[in-house]
Amino acid sequence: MMQNLLLEEGGLVQVESVNLQVATYSKFQPQSPDFLDITNPKAVLENALRNFACLTTGDVIAINYNEKIYELRVMETKPDKAVSIIECDMNVDFDAPLGYKEPERHTPYEEPTDVEADHSEYVADIGFRAFSGSGNRLDGKKKGIDPSPTPLKPGDIRRGIPNYDFKIGTITFIRNSRPQAKKVEEDDSLTRFIAFSGEGQSLRKKGRKP
């Protein structure tokens, strides 16, 4: 307190009685990065503020924790620059400590991805190729000639035509069969059934009588 009032031993102090509003919010700035070593700083500060009756913006308060002195500057108080902290419900916030530097964030190493192959140079190969496999001999010997299938031309590939009338939830079975042409009606005389119209055969030839 004497340090905040810039007093020395034997100095003259003039005291005036005032009424202060009850504190609702206060913000503190630790004067050393060592304050970050405290596990629960709000609980430590709450316990230390029981020894104080009021706070004023710009003052520096000192708290004793684990046989070490930590200084904190009062950066902001609400609802006034000077507030009473006796029997109050006050929200506490902390500013970055004086001289604190954020640790550098190292970007994780990313492995180089393989360059995607350009498929535009590949010849479109869709459909069935007859006899495109390699041949085998019965005696087990390998044939020296390798099959060399002729590549298909892009113009020979048939592509499907989209169905623009497609409706969700319906299945359409498309068949490539064509309707057969009507057969020419045959003559009724050829198709009409005639009983006993075949020729007879005899096992022996009949001779003529003299």
Automatic annotation (TrEMBL):
Pfam families referenced in this protein's UniProt entry, alphabetically: UFD1_N2
GO cellular component, one term: VCP-NPL4-UFD1 AAA ATPase complex
Superkingdom of origin: Eukaryota
GO BP: any one term: ubiquitin-dependent protein catabolic process
Residues in Ubiquitin fusion degradation protein UFD1 N-terminal subdomain domain copies: 23-97
InterPro entries according to UniProt: Ufd1-like (IPR004854), UFD1_N2 (IPR055418)
Annotated segments matching region Disordered: 138-159
Gene3D superfamilies: 3.10.330.10
One GO molecular-function entry: polyubiquitin modification-dependent protein binding
Protein name: Ubiquitin fusion degradation protein UFD1 N-terminal subdomain 2 domain-containing protein
Native organism: Engystomops pustulosus
